[in-house]
Design a protein that fits this description.
mainly beta, four-stranded antiparallel sheet, globular
């Protein structure tokens, strides 16, 4: 569609595409995938522009499984909200798992081997924060052996921890990060329903060091200048920026501050091309390697 969904036209019949994604910084770069594998267009998905990419195991081997909504192959494609050409693919089935590209789909690295992986989410502020979910069952019942449920990584997929405490079964088929509260996760669990969890720290980023504190934003909501009060226990260089819910940078800056409270202000500058629409935005502050985010 080129008119906000009013009309549609077919651009690719791959005989088994169930997920799509568009690079957040290049709308010409489009991905599609399903039981037939992974495909890419560098021409905004136009007819005849598609090519097969990725490891061969991203395509399924069992033609019977799509009938039961349990197809082997690509189940989710997610473009990184912060980095051009970075994308993730969750693939279901033996020998598959979570894959990442950092060069617009030319090469792929397997981050985790997981038989029942079904979805992935990326922290919109910090791309090192990842969530992956899997479920051995698609509707309800069945064995949970090998079903990993909800997994979290804070180091770009090098290590993972389980977030299944509080779930009756380790089944999770879909996950999103609440754009209005990056601590809040929502999952769909086959046979059990939808669940939410609010984490104790901001998703994917470190807790603030004890030598500084932050208050604000003031006012909230706002249509003009927004201010924060940063209180430092020792002099430090402070870098901070404003981001939209997709993790795109609206503004960034840095300055040195002394001991005590400091008032940090930001206002959109229409002449500089930063006129913003209504919505939710985030401010991220970094002090000596420590990070704190405010909505």
């Amino acid at each position: 569609t080129l008119d906000d969904g009013a009309t549609w036209s077919p651009v690719f019949d791959c005989n088994g595409c169930r997920a799509t994604a568009v690079d957040r910084f290049d709308s010409q770069l489009v991905y599609a995938g399903g039981e037939t594998g992974l495909w890419r267009s560098r021409s905004a998905g136009t007819l005849g522009s598609w090519e097969r990419i990725g490891p061969p195991e991203l395509a399924g081997n069992d033609p019977r499984l799509p009938k039961y909504e349990q197809w082997e192959g690509v189940h989710a494609i997610v473009a990184d909200p912060q980095l051009y050409g970075h994308a993730y693919v969750a693939a279901y089935g033996t020998g598959r798992g979570l894959y990442r590209t950092t060069d617009a789909g030319n090469t792929w690295t397997k981050l985790r081997n997981a038989t029942y992986l079904m979805d992935v989410a990326v922290d919109p502020i910090n791309p090192a924060g990842l969530y992956a979910v899997g479920s051995r069952v698609f509707k309800s019942g069945g064995s949970f052996t090998g079903s990993e449920g909800v997994l979290r990584s804070t180091d770009g997929g090098q290590t993972w921890t389980s977030l299944n405490d509080g779930l009756a079964w380790p089944y999770a088929a879909r996950i999103i990060i609440d754009p209005a509260n990056l601590n809040r996760l929502i999952i769909g669990s086959p046979g059990a329903g939808f669940f939410e969890r609010t984490l104790g720290v901001t998703t994917g980023v470190e807790s603030p060091a004890p030598h500084f504190s932050l208050s604000g934003a003031f006012p909230d909501p706002s249509r003009g200048t927004v201010s924060f009060t940063l209180n430092l226990q020792r002099p430090a260089r402070v870098s901070w920026g404003v981001y939209d819910v997709q993790g795109r940078v609206v503004w960034k800056g840095d300055a040195s501050y002394g001991v005590g409270p400091a008032r940090l202000e930001w206002a959109e500058q229409p002449d500089a091309g930063t006129r913003l629409g209504d919505g939710v935005y985030f401010a991220r502050f970094e002090v000596e390697g420590r990070t704190l985010t405010r909505r």
